[in-house]
Amino acid sequence: MTNREAVIVDAVRTPVGRRGGILSQWHPADLLGCTLRYLVDRSGVDPSTIDDVIAGCVLQHDQQSSNIARHAVLSAGLPESVPAVTVDRQCGSGQQAVSFAAHGVMAGSYDLVIAGGVESMSQVTMPSAFQPGAPLGPQYGPLELERYDGRLMAQGPSSELMNDRFGISREELDAYSVRSHERAFAATRAGAFVKQMVPITADPQDPNGPCITADEGIREHLDTEKIAGLKTVFAKNGRTTAANASQVSDGAAALLVADRGYAEQKGLKPRARFRAMSVAGADPVIQFTAILEATHKALKMAGLSAADIDLYEVNEAFAGVPLMFQREFDIPDDKLNV
Predict the structure, then answer these.
(1) Helices 68-75 and 28-43 sit at what angle, rounded to 10 degrees?
(2) Where do the Thiolase N-terminal domain residues begin and end (predicted)?
(3) Fewest Cβ atoms closer than 10 Å to its Cβ: which of 90, 227, 236, 304?
(4) Mean predicted lDDT score pLDDT of the chain
(5) Which structural domain, as residue segments, surrounds residue 228?
């Protein structure tokens, strides 16, 4: 048994850019590298004391291949002695990096570790990973396809299965999307994200240019009538549209995770601690329901009920995901993705 406690000391991120937008010129290794450098400089830690860097990345090919976490460490100018590893749990890759970091600290393998993630969907596009017969090869093997009778699909069509199973209407999806933008805009205007942001320019060759200060894609006002008139994307009579699905984005983030005793010894102030972490698998056809089981497991591990939690942050790949989550755990609107 160990009494070591993993804590988050600091956390930073780049602004989130649209595909082809404000961060599209950045090589993803440099994008993550700038994030690592800023985190280290801001926290004041000795970079030679970093035990590991763990980064999540989904599309690990082309510019994001060959262990992009290690390339980012070198890009950041950190000591060559600092190791790094890249992990892939698809949409949960960054979270998995943080989980590995925390578990490593609690096990005594690390005193100080960086966890985070990067994705440049401008540089490495999603379709390039899934095109049948593409140079990368088929995504699914014959045995897996046989097991699921050829029903495996991308997340877009799966979102419609989720909408059907949980009875989520088009009106609910659109209303949630509008609320999400309104909340994000209000938080941006209030300066809620300022302390998180890595100072970065749109042009990698012009470090003295104007810094990007806000996420790209947040809208102050959405025309509900126009949204209601949009065509569905994945099914003729479906409900998922471009307005109630997330944009394709570029960005990077990094957290400094440490043992509480080590952090206090080094004068680093813990900002949060890890209470419980869990993962779960589910039907790969509908895909999104795994977060429900993972949350049930985490609550049980922590000895808490859903009502005990003050705030929930749930993936918004599609508006149906947080709405499904809200139904499962009976979460009030003012506790969900505020």
Answers:
(1) 60
(2) 7-259
(3) 236
(4) 95
(5) 149-191+213-246+278-329
